[in-house]
């Protein structure tokens, strides 16, 4: 029994040393974290003011009635220009306007792994699948892209904008 008691005591001593070491390490890391980021600055950075919350929840579009120029209107800045978003419900088939109204949101190069308009390397394998497949993907959606690009564009409008994007990316 002495052997078991001695073995148990050795285990408890070793285990206690490990617990004490981990406790001291934890306190040291907490101290280092507080030295790097003082608590007052952390609270200011994490503050959720009503203005910050409203800015994060702001809609990227506005609905306008028939006869007005656009259904959605918001601006996001790119490198040196502003891209104005407007989804046309008036049946416009102007591919440039359709692209700018909806497709540019994702295909302007601001989102990762989404082919940017004019990026021949990213578009090449997609174009190789054919225009019909690209149109089908635009209509029904693919991966993170929602059906119709999240718009109410008709099949003809989508066809025009898909052809436009292909022509700019070959």
Largest sheet properties: 2 strands, antiparallel
Residues in helices, as a percent range: 55-70%
Distance between the termini: 84 Å
Q: Tell me, what's the shape?
A: elongated
Major beta sheet, strand line-up: 1-2
The count of helical stretches stands at 7
> Structural class per helix/strand content?
mainly alpha
In brief:
This protein has 170 residues and is mainly alpha-helical. The protein contains seven helices and two strands, in the order H-H-H-E-E-H-H-H-H.
Could you characterize the architecture of this molecule?
It contains seven helices and two strands, in the order H-H-H-E-E-H-H-H-H. It has helices spanning 2-36, 39-46, 50-57, 95-107, 120-128, 131-140, 155-169, and strands at residues 74-77, 82-85. The chain has a two-stranded antiparallel ribbon. A hairpin with a 4-residue loop joins strand 1 (74-77) and strand 2 (82-85). Helix 4 packs across helix 7 (155-169). The chain is elongated. It starts with a helix and ends with a helix.
């Amino acid at each position: 029994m002495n052997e078991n008691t001695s073995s148990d005591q050795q285990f408890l001593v070793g285990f206690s040393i490990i617990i004490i070491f981990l406790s001291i390490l934890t306190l040291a890391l907490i101290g280092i974290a507080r030295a790097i980021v003082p608590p007052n600055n952390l609270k200011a950075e994490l503050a959720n003011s009503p203005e910050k919350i409203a800015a994060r929840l702001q809609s990227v579009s506005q609905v306008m009635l028939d006869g007005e120029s656009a259904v959605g209107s918001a601006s996001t800045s790119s490198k040196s220009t502003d891209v104005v978003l407007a989804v046309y419900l008036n049946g416009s088939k102007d591919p440039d306007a359709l692209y700018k109204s909806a497709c540019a949101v994702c295909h302007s190069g601001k989102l990762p792994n989404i082919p940017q308009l004019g990026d021949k390397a990213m578009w090449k394998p997609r174009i190789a699948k054919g225009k019909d497949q690209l149109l089908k993907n635009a209509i029904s959606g693919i991966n993170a892209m929602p059906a119709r690009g999240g718009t109410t564009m008709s099949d003809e409008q989508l066809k025009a904008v898909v052809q436009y994007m292909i022509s700019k990316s070959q």
